[in-house]
Amino acid sequence: MDVFEQEIRLVFRYPVHFTTGVFSATSTLLRDLVGERTLEVPARVLFVLDRGVAGAHPGIVHDIESYCLRHKATLRLAAPVLVIAGGERAKNDPRTLDDVLRAIHDAGLCRHSYVVAVGGGAVLDVVGYAAATAHRGIRLIRVPTTILAQDDSAVGVKNGINAFGKKNYLGTFATPFAVINDFAFLHTLSDRDWRGGLSEAVKAALIKDRTFFDFIEANAAALAARDLHATGETIRRSAALHLAHIGTGGDPFELGSSRPLDFGHWSAHKLEQLSGHRLSHGEAVGIGLALDTTYSWLAGFLPEREWKRVIDVLLALRLPLYAPELGRSLDATKDPRCVLQGLEEFREHLGGRLTIMLLRSIGEPFDVHELRRDVMVRSIETLAGIDDARADAAGQRAS
Ligand SMILES: NC(=O)c1ccc[n+]([C@@H]2O[C@H](COP(=O)([O-])OP(=O)(O)OC[C@H]3O[C@@H](n4cnc5c(N)ncnc54)[C@H](O)[C@@H]3O)[C@@H](O)[C@H]2O)c1
Ligand SMILES: [Zn+2]
CB-based contacts of 174: which residues, under 8 Å, 6+ apart? Predict the structure, then answer.
């Protein structure tokens, strides 16, 4: 039998910029990015904006329109700025995807046009999915406006929406044309989203970089108090770790069974779903990190003092360590409401053998292929105890 075998080698390259005031009169960053590599002059650009950002920054639509007018020789608004609902509902409601695809279609965008997505991780995920699938791929520029999107989701190569009750069931791997991290957006974030975004930086430090963990530990109070200097440095370092992993980790499109950047995520994704998205992704990741770090300790892999350092940092960042959904139906592991079901869903999402990352020390992870139910239950009880003590302490302060 004859066989042809063809190898295809591709290089992907995209910049991640750090700036403030990307749509201001003095910034030429976006114009230059588009101008540098465009085949269509002026390039047609569709802006899709997170409604939460539009509400918190009332002048932004006007600023975008003025920006395009000012640089009309290079870029041209292909349609009025499309404003879509922000937050997880953007990924849960299929109509959001339809709206973005229709806008791309009606504006007549082609593969040389640009979609600029401005918003939190959820909006970037749905717009990224639309841009990756319309005409099999339109250039996407991400302008993330939350800490989580700037330090994690927007710098990577994934997009997606939720379907069949599962997180990110539909999606693609697609590199962006460019990412612009603009710190000026962060001022208007809610406290919850501020803190939630820090959990992904803690994750990156725990699995990749012990000195970065030391930095977060030393600056935890400033980070929780919204100090922009400490937060900017945290975002840069976390984004760099995520990028380095994708670029040099050997598996950018996750073909293997191990997914190191998803430390703590098997339970986080399940908790988001079980809580009906009451818990944000960042908050659920905080709990997931606490859980897998506690398991690492109780299973005898991680020294107690290292475990305590991690828990103390999560507490200092005022991230949740526990949610009632963690303790539900633990006696019935086949019950879809049991968090342990998240293990099977995680395995299915990746394919192959279940692979979960645990810690031997801070910055030193390793893979396991099964988790002991009894140790996991003790881990959950330990976190419930810490959460009770925190609630008591807060109650005493209040009275
Ligand atoms: N693609 C990936 O690789 C990847 C990685 C991690 C997380 N994610 C996804 O990211 C999503 C979470 O993203 P998120 O944490 O950015 O939250 P989010 O997108 O859900 O936004 C949270 C809220 O903040 C609002 N908002 C956004 N920017 C704001 C600003 N500057 N000021 C005021 N309000 C603002 C939004 O409108 C929304 O109501 C989840 O769906 C998660 O699955 C994707
Ligand atoms: Zn995450």
Answer: 128, 131, 132, 137, 140, 157, 158, 159
93 within 8 A of 122, measured Cβ to Cβ: no
Query: Secondary structure of the chain: what % helix, strand, coil (to 5)?
Result: 50, 15, 35
Tell me if 140 CB under 6 Å of ligand 1.
no
pLDDT at position 333 is 64
3 state SS of 115: strand
Nearest ligand for residue 279 CA:
1
Q: Which residues pair with 44 in a beta bridge?
A: 76
pTM strictly above 0.90? yes
CA of 305 to the centre of ligand 2 (A): 26
Burial (CB < 10 A; 0-12, 13-18, 19+), residue 206, is: buried
Residue 40's Cβ-count burial label (10 Å; 0-12, 13-18, 19+) is: middle
Residue 50 tokens, joined = 């997170």
Cα separation of 321 and 308, whole Å?
Answer: 13
Rounded Cα distance between 331 and 326, Å, is: 12
Structure tokens at 121: 């991780």
8 A C-beta contact, residue 175 and residue 159: no
Q: Which of 358, 319, 326 lies closest to 341 in space, CA to CA?
A: 326
DSSP H or E stretch at residue 63: helix 60-70
What's at 47, amino acid-wise?
Answer: F
- Has residue 257 got a pLDDT over 80? no
Q: Which tokens hold the place of 122?
A: 């959820």
Q: CA-to-CA distance for 106 and 122, rounded, in angstroms?
A: 23
CB 110 within 8 A of CB 139: no
Out of 123, 153, 242, 245, give the residue to mutate to test ligand 1, the one with the largest number of ligand atoms within 8 Å of its CB.
153
Q: Is the pLDDT at 93 greater than 70, yes or no?
A: yes
Tell me the mean pLDDT in the region 95-108: 98
pLDDT at residue 203 tops 70: yes
